[in-house]
């Protein structure tokens, strides 16, 4: 068996000190570029592998960022795209992603507390933010580094870095798209009031109609399922709506069984398969910005207070068969 390559072997090969090799691996910003490249070439040539345990002992860093795995919502989960982007972005910054599960704020706080004792993650990425988010308060009170994907929805909760997608701008663009097609009675099918994300998406629809002096009363709340989306669409069409903006693709899938003039949100693979016009979230960019904000804080670099990204309207022609109203 070949002898294990050590940091001393790399130092001799690159003709530098062991401290310089350590700096290149742990604090590359303090090493001249020419020297850094020479050391990295030696690392590659010798096949040196850094021991994660040894690095943590030297630097006090685990190089781990922890994030919860989201459960499927509305029957269509877009979180896997965010998680994939987070893992790739973390790796580019020499971090790894530690996954965990939780059912609510309290269980997530308990899990985070346990992870701190067992794995000592350097920072946390919180998702699915909401009013009165106890997780953010708990981390902030302990001065633990974290970023949220999703803005803090209460004014008193805004003191941490966050990344979010501007849902209101998206639904406003969707509504203007339908206005451009000649619709003047455009309904909105949302989630129950009190959801920060859902209320934000409703606000964009309302803003676009109000700017044209049009009716903003054609709106209904649902649990987010396709069945309730279909029922809400049927009621809104009976009330005179000729087009619908939906809070999610799951809701839009139900609405599309009533009328073809529907816009969803999330641009899921299902939307592409059935020709549903939908708003796509820049999830890879959101993940990258989350890692950027968090690693900036961990490195002591100045960081932006927040990042608000814009969704993109993807227009299509629906291929899903529209049900005929039996009364027609």
Number of domains: 3
CATH fold-level label of the largest domain: Rossmann fold
Strand content: 15-25%
Structural class designation: alpha/beta
CATH top level of the largest domain is Alpha Beta
Helicity level = 40-55%
Output the CATH homologous superfamily of the largest domain. Response regulator
Number of H- or I-type helical stretches: 13
Q: What is the CA-atom radius of gyration, in angstroms?
A: 25 Å
Distance between the termini: 80 Å
Principal-axes geometry comes out as elongated
Helix-strand string: HHHHEHEHEHEEHEHEHEHEHEHEE
Spatially, the strands of the biggest sheet line up as 2-1-3-4-5-11
Query: Averaged pLDDT, please?
Result: 88
How many strands, what sense, and barrel or not for the largest sheet? Answer: 6 strands, parallel
CATH 2nd-level architecture of the largest domain: 3-Layer(aba) Sandwich
Q: How many β-strands, per DSSP? A: 12
Which ranges are low-confidence, i.e. pLDDT below 50, for 5 or more consecutive residues? 324-328
SSE topology sketch:
Blueprint: H1 7-14, H2 18-26, H3 33-46, H4 52-59, E1 64-68, H5 79-92, E2 96-100, H6 105-118, E3 123-127, H7 134-141, E4 146-149, E5 162-165, H8 167-180, E6 186-191, H9 196-211, E7 219-222, H10 226-238, E8 243-246, H11 249-255, E9 262-265, H12 269-274, E10 277-280, H13 283-299, E11 306-309, E12 312-314
Parallel strand pairs: 1-2, 1-3, 3-4, 4-5, 5-11, 6-7, 6-8, 8-9, 9-10
Antiparallel strand pairs: 10-12
Helix pairs in contact: 1-2, 1-3, 5-13, 8-9, 10-11
Domain HTH lacI-type: 5-59
GO molecular function, one term: transcription cis-regulatory region binding
Organism: Nonomuraea pusilla
